[in-house]
Design a protein that fits this description.
Layout (H helix, E strand, L loop, with lengths): L1 H11 L2 H7 L4 H35 L5 H33 L5 H38 L16
């Protein structure tokens, strides 16, 4: 999400893109499509990481750290909540914000609520990023707290 927030988002909402698209609602609609696709990528990555943990457990016969499992499940749940709950509501609020049939009060309410949901989505994405970094750190450190070596001592044939 750092890539999206730092580079893609400003590019989508920059003056050049507004000039090309010529519709004030278009950059937000494009950003919503990209964010939903990004959340789906997060779900795939979390699923692959869970499968990795399961295969590691089956191969070594040792249970993995509960913290890794909890972090992965929380990341997956946050991404699912973003895709299933936040994204549809944000799309609806975006439509209300730019609809010609909306009253000024509806537009103001939609803009305020959209801002709250957008901030919530950004915070949950930051939490998911921290969770993924923690998970990778746990993978690199290994179960006993030392760095993993290439000797394969942890694995059996």
């Amino acid at each position: 999400m750092v890539l999206f927030t730092a580079f893609i988002g400003p590019g989508l909402f920059g003056p050049e893109m507004k000039q090309v698209l010529r519709a004030p609602w278009m950059p937000g609609a494009v950003a919503q499509i990209l964010v939903v696709n990004y959340m789906m990528l997060q779900q795939w990555c979390a699923g692959i990481a869970l499968v990795h943990l399961i295969f590691d457990w089956l191969y070594t016969g040792k249970l993995f750290a509960k913290s890794s499992l909890i972090i992965l499940v929380l990341c997956l749940l946050m991404s699912l909540a973003g895709t299933r709950l936040l994204a549809p509501k944000m799309k609806e609020l975006h439509l209300w914000k730019y609809s010609p049939q909306s009253t000024p009060a509806q537009r103001t309410s939609a803009e305020r609520n959209f801002g709250i949901l957008h901030a919530t989505a950004q915070i949950t994405n930051l939490m998911a990023l921290c969770g993924v970094l923690f998970y990778f750190w746990r993978l690199s450190v290994g179960p006993q707290g030392g760095a993993r070596s290439g000797s394969g001592a942890r694995y059996r044939s």
